[in-house]
């Protein structure tokens, strides 16, 4: 030991370990980004070539005939998601309002815990439940059943984000309204919720994006359909279902259309998420 | 016109902790009454009991008698109805961030179902006039949000907002504590004028301010009201030793 | 505090007898504009409606349990516990044993964890501890983008890109070098347990890494500085100051990822091969609880068949509930109940 040296030099082994670990974590980043880029590259390359007017306007052609499209599936997805939002958004926002404005107690804690648990229930299990609830009673598959399944999935996400956004609204804003003799319900809707609007919408869009690509819960609820159908109590095609059916089929033409469908689906979801990001950045809460 | 306020044996609690002990006070109509005392003495809690704002905090309770004019505050009438008669201005300016200046002032009426557009315009202008803000904002009533004003302007906006509902009593909870001296001066001048029409109760940690604006002053200490008298008497010849110590700066 | 008397400030208090004339004339106000009786009924109705929405969330969970229990009743009475211990799945003879599906679910999920955990933690550590600030936002956004891709699209990609790569390059290589372990033997189909594990890993990386990141950021700065001050290298600081303190939270993140992997359906169904067999080799096809539901539920003709499938759903539900509850508690223990910013 050199007595003049107060601190020993960091040994080459420790230095090498440090370098090695830094290198390894950079490697992990690259390994994780690789499939992401691969997926997007394939989607774009394989998808764009197959998207044309027919794809966006026609229904599927029978096996063996070329051409046809997914117009009915795109519209069907819209119908199912519309039903899901109609059911899930009010319930989710209401539950969020309960959690933030009336749920600072044991009951609220219970609801919070249950909605976190509900968030982790596999989507296929939700499908079984919607099957029992709607399909068994109606005796046939329907857009309504699919909508119910997706709505159940939206509720916990919306409830928790709505709660968080409402909690960001300062108590003094609520007090200002109370002080004006505005009743509690009116304050909650016209002041608190209005102040948090952009955040609440963010939550709704995230939940929407999450269920927009769901397939499993639709398999035995909406079921799919090769033809046009706008009746909510009939089997209905959905983009994700169609992608699944085509992907596992043995026909090249259908594989091509599956890629195109996937690209359309991704574009719809990513633009929803991006719209949310922009909305949040210019959101009212950002300035408050 | 303003009305008087009578408080008898008022006690307030946060959970099991008692914050106010047997407060008795008679506030004169159309005068300004100041409440002073070191921080944590209960003066803010007291003013928040007058319009039942205290009970919006979870796990709190109040007992005693409060009468505002002919209105019994803790006896069967709704807090919402009461607060329409009793305006409140808070410590930090709290305009509604998503609303325009106009909507901020009109909020109290609009949200309570008042729809007469012409009347609304009139009241907004009058309220902004009465809070001495009209000239500064009349060109951007709908264009600017309430949150875009300066701190002093925001507080005057909050005063206008409270006045628009045309209350009989105006409660002010340290309205100048977050403001610069010039804005403070403007608000004080305003209080001076407002008391011709309203009964004003103002909580302040600034003794000079109490002396400048209020005819009556109450001194709070540890949740009890130590002394309540004409302002001049409280500051120049208090009857309680503790008041004397406080106003001469011996503690706090 | 000085004790000698301070000169009293001079006050010119307003005189209550005379009052002071205001410089600016306040306009006359009329009587209160809003003096009607206020009903408390709307407030009560609104509170009731919101409570209803809140409790509806609990109701939904109860409804799920009810549906699954009622639906699986028949199968439970027919097979009892044996259902989970036998591997004969034969709709023709109405014999149902769920073991191959349980095995497939567990193996594919564990395999995905083996792959995803080091990668996710590495990414999280890089983003929070090493990455330049300018890169941080982009990297976390990109990894979260992975979470936005629907399962069915992962499946599509896996079928046409991942599986051929596995079949042509990876599996022959693994068979040659690691075949002696018994885990990598048999013909290289591409499709099978290995493909399922890999695609699951890709899908759960965003969840594990974003929650790990959240956990790492709440480790107090002084823990890092304390270790650095002892003359540690950056890696030693990360190992001792950061990872050690965040251990419980990272384990929670991993379990949360496991919960997602257990219930994942579409991508797995598309690449696992869907054969109810228990094989040691990862090259062999398998079947998971979720995929048997996806494939056979609409085709289940007999009552007992349907009931057996629902019982698989019930088992899957219970396992994911336990796993998720455990994970939440572990993450909470680190972030101290701060609401999670990640919508997982």
Do you know the CATH topology of one domain in chain A?
MetI-like fold
- CATH superfamily grouping of chain C: MetI-like
Tell me the count of domains of chain C: 1
Taking pLDDT < 50 over at least 5 consecutive residues as the criterion, the unreliable ranges of chain C are: 1-10, 19-24, 339-344
Q: Could you say which overall geometry of chain A the principal axes of the C-alpha atoms support?
A: globular
The major pleated sheet of chain C works out as:
2 strands, antiparallel
Structural class of the helix and strand makeup of chain A? mainly alpha
Low-confidence segments of chain A = 284-288
Give a written overview of the molecule.
The complex is a heterotrimer of chains A (288), B (252) and C (344). Chain A has helices at residues 12-48, 53-57, 71-102, 106-119, 123-138, 143-168, 171-179, 184-195, 197-212, 239-247, 252-281, 284-287. With 288 residues, chain A is mainly α. The radius of gyration of chain B is 18 Å and the shape is globular. Chain C has eleven helices and two strands. A two-stranded antiparallel sheet of chain C has the order 1-2. In chain C, α1 (41-79) crosses α11, α2 (99-130) crosses α8 and α6 crosses α7. The two termini of chain C are 57 Å apart. The chains are: A mainly alpha (288), B alpha/beta (252), C mainly alpha (344). Chain B binds chain C through residues 1, 28, 31-32, 78, 80-81, 84-85, 109, 112, 114, 123, 126, 129-130, 132, 163, 165-168, 189, 192-194, 196-198, 207-208, 211-216, 230-232, 235-236, 247-251, and chain C through 1, 3, 5-6, 8-9, 11-16, 19-20, 22-35, 37-40, 43.
């Amino acid at each position: 030991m050199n007595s003049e040296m107060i601190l020993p030099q960091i040994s080459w082994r420790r230095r090498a370990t440090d370098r090695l670990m830094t290198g390894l974590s950079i490697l992990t980043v690259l390994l994780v980004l690789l499939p992401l880029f691969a997926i997007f590259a394939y989607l774009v390359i394989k998808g764009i070539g197959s998207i044309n007017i027919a794809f966006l306007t026609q229904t599927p052609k029978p096996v063996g005939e070329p051409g046809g499209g997914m117009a009915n599936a795109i519209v069907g997805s819209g119908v199912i998601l519309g039903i899901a939002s109609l059911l899930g958004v009010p319930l989710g926002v209401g539950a969020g309002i309960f959690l933030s404005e009336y749920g600072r107690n044991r009951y609220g804690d219970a609801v919070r815990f249950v909605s976190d648990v509900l968030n982790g229930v596999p989507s296929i299990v939700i499908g079984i439940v919607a099957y029992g609830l709607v399909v068994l009673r109606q005796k046939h598959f329907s857009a309504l059943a699919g909508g119910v399944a997706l709505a159940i999935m939206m509720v916990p996400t919306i409830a928790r984000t709505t709660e968080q956004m409402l909690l960001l609204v300062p108590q003094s804003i609520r007090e200002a309204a109370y002080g004006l003799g505005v009743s509690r319900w009116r304050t909650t809707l016209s002041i608190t919720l209005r102040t948090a609007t952009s955040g609440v919408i963010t939550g709704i869009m995230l939940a929407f994006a999450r269920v927009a690509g769901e397939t499993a819960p639709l398999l035995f609820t909406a079921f799919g359909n090769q033809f046009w159908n706008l009746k909510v109590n009939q089997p209905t095609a959905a983009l994700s279902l169609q992608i699944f059916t085509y992907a596992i089929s043995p026909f090249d033409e259908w594989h091509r259309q599956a890629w195109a469908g996937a690209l359309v689906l991704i574009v719809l979801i990513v633009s929803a998420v991006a719209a949310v990001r922009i909305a949040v950045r210019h959101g009212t809460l950002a300035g408050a | 016109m303003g009305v008087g306020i009578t408080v008898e044996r008022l006690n307030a609690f946060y959970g099991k902790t008692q914050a106010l002990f047997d407060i008795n006070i008679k506030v004169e109509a159309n005068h300004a009454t100041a409440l002073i005392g070191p921080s944590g003495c209960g003066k803010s809690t007291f003013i928040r009991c007058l319009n039942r704002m205290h009970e919006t905090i979870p796990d709190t309770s109040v007992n005693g008698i409060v009468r505002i004019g002919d209105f019994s505050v803790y006896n069967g009438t709704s807090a919402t109805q009461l607060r329409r008669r009793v305006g409140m201005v808070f410590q930090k300016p709290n305009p509604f961030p998503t609303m325009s200046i106009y909507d901020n002032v009109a909020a109290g009426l609009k949200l309570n179902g008042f729809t007469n557009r012409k009347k609304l315009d009139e009241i907004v202008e009058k309220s902004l006039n009465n809070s001495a803000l009209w000239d500064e904002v009349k060109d951007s009533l709908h264009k600017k949000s309430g949150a875009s004003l300066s701190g002093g302007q925001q507080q005057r906006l909050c005063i206008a907002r409270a006045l628009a509902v045309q209350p009989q009593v105006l409660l002010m909870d340290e309205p100048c504590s977050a403001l610069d001296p010039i804005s403070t001066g403007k608000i004080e001048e305003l209080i001076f004028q407002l008391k011709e029409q309203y009964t004003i109760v103002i909580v302040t940690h600034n003794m000079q301010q109490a002396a400048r604006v209020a005819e009556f002053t109450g001194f709070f200490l540890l949740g009890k009201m130590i002394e309540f008298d004409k302002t001049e008497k409280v500051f120049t010849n208090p009857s309680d030793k503790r008041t004397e110590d406080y106003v001469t700066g011996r503690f706090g | 505090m000085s004790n000698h008397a301070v000169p009293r400030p001079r006050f010119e208090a307003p005189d209550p007898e005379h009052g002071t004339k205001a410089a600016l004339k306040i306009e006359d106000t009329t009587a209160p504009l809003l003096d009607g009786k206020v009903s408390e009924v709307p407030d009560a109705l609104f509170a009731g409606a919101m409570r209803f929405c809140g409790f509806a969330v609990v109701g939904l969970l109860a409804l799920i349990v009810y549906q699954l229990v009622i639906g699986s009743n028949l199968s439970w009475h027919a097979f009892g516990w044996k259902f989970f211990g036998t591997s004969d799945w034969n709709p023709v003879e109405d014999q149902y044993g769920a073991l191959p599906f349980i095995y497939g679910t567990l193996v594919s999920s564990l395999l995905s964890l083996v792959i995803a955990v080091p990668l996710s933690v590495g990414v999280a550590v890089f983003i929070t501890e090493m990455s330049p600030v300018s890169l941080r936002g982009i990297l976390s956004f990109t990894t979260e983008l992975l979470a936005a891709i629907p399962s069915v699209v992962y499946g599509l990609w896996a079928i046409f890109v991942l599986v051929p790569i596995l079949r042509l390059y990876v599996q022959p290589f693994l068979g040659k070098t690691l075949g002696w372990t018994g885990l990598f033997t048999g013909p290289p189909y591409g499709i099978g347990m290995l493909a399922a594990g890999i695609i699951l890993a890709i899908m759960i990386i965003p969840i594990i890494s974003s929650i790990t990141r959240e956990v790492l950021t709440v480790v107090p700065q002084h823990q890092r500085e304390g270790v650095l001050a002892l003359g540690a290298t950056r890696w030693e600081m990360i190992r001792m100051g950061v990872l050690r303190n965040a251990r419980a939270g990272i384990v929670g993140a991993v379990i949360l990822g496991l919960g997602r992997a257990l219930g994942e359906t579409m991508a797995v169904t598309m690449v696992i091969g869907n054969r109810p067999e228990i094989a040691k080799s990862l090259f062999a096809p398998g079947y998971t609880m979720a995929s048997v539901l996806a494939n056979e539920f609409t085709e289940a003709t007999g009552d007992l068949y349907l009931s057996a499938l629902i019982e698989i759903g019930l088992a899957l539900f219970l396992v994911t509930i336990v796993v998720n509850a455990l994970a939440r508690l572990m993450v909470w223990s680190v972030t101290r109940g701060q609401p999670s910013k990640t919508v997982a």
